[in-house]
Amino acid sequence: MSRIDQFSGDGSLEYLAHQAAKTECCFTHRRQGLETAHIKHIGMGGNRKKPNPRHFTALRWHYTVHRNHHRMTSEEFFREYGINVWEAVGRQLADYFKVDLGYVHIGDWEEFVYDLLERVEEENEGGNCFV
User: Fold this and answer.
1) Residue 11: how many CB atoms within 10 A of its CB?
2) 36: which DSSP letter?
3) What is the CA radius of gyration of the chain?
4) In whole numbers, what is the pLDDT of the chain averaged over residues?
5) pLDDT of res. 128
6) Fewer C-beta within 10 Å: the chain N or C terminus?
């Protein structure tokens, strides 16, 4: 099981809709040929209409970037595009949840994402979600 799967997915459909409403690729800034892509893949049988913590890894991408991500490792993708996908996810989540990024070391973005999702879950349980 992936670490992302420890989270409940509460609020994930709203976040997914927020990403799907974006009108440009977060990397190329193209406005046509857009798709919503998950960094932690849902898979062909995964239900995109049910809450799923993997929705919190969604980004709005041009379809060519999305296809290339599927065929590359994150390291290869970074070398090819100069894009740290976990940094992109972390920045999108921080913006959505109105969280100050502070300083995040380049190698710590994936950990930042998991820590942020942990905070969201704790806030949701207490009825004090900061969304």
Assistant:
1) 21
2) E
3) 14
4) 83
5) 40
6) N
Long-range contacts (CB closer than 8 Å, 24 or more residues apart) made by 17-25: 18/96, 19/58, 19/59, 19/60, 19/92, 20/58, 20/60, 22/60, 24/60, 25/60, 25/61, 25/62, 25/65
Q: For residue 98, give both structure tokens.
A: 């109105």
Per-residue pLDDT band for 29 (boundaries 50, 70, 90) equals very high
pTM of the model: 0.81
Measured in degrees and rounded to the nearest 5, phi and psi for residue 60 equal -90, 115
Query: What local confidence, expressed as pLDDT, does residue 25 receive?
Result: 92
CA torsion, points 57, 62, 65, 67, in degrees to nearest 10?
90
